[in-house]
Amino acid sequence: MSAAEPKATDYFGIVAGVEGWLLDDEVELLYRLASGVTSGTIVEIGSYRGKSTVTLALGSRDHYRVPVYAVDPHETFTGAMGFQFQPADRTAFLRNIVRCEVSEIVRVVNLPSCVAAAGWNRPVELLWIDGDHRYESVKQDLNCWERHLAPGARVALHDSTDPNLGPQQAIREAIEAGRFEPLELVGLTTVLARRG
Predict the structure, then answer these.
(1) CA-CA distance, 178 to 94, in Å (whole number)?
(2) What is the per-residue pLDDT across 89-126, written as a single tens digit (0 to 9) for each?
(3) For an engineered disulfide with 57, which of 22, 64, 71, 102 has Cβ 3.0 to 4.6 Å away?
(4) pLDDT bracket for residue 80 (50, 70, 90)
């Protein structure tokens, strides 16, 4: 199926029932980005209960059916904003993947981001980073996965507008180093393109 003739899916309606922090315009953005990936893979860092996972998978399923790898260890963790994540989130995540009928697109990787990246061997066309929002963690996620990005690959980073969180600084450094160029800002999400 070509991108010009998408399958009619009420992705907003489906995603609305999944817990998470994406704004409606960010749901639209992730769906659109995933819809445009024609080959390689889509990798998500940080899945929580699957809102972004389902969005990416629906965009992929409705267009080119590129696999979405959801990388999240789902272990006990306190996020940069104080939110407590638990292994029980994995159960909710798996239920949402099945309930939203995207299990044929989603590949679950219950490992820390850089552990998964160390053994990775497929080109990544779209990388969604929404894991630990501390600067060192965001920088590490970007650095670990950069070598797997295809030329021109898109990288979207959530919560990128708050100067107290790590994504903003990591994005600025990546742009200043000439490794990435900014494409758009939608809601709290910055999209970059890999140079080269």
Answers:
(1) 38
(2) 999 999 999 999 999 999 999 999 999 999 999 999 99
(3) 102
(4) confident
Q: How many residues belong to the chain?
A: 196
What is the C-alpha separation between 29 and 76, in angstroms, rounded?
29
Count other Cβ atoms within 10 Å, centred on residue 187.
Answer: 17
Distance (Å, whole) CA 118 – CA 145:
9
Tell the residue number behind the tokens 């996620």, with chain if given.
141
List of domains in the chain: 1-133+182-190 (3.40.50.150)
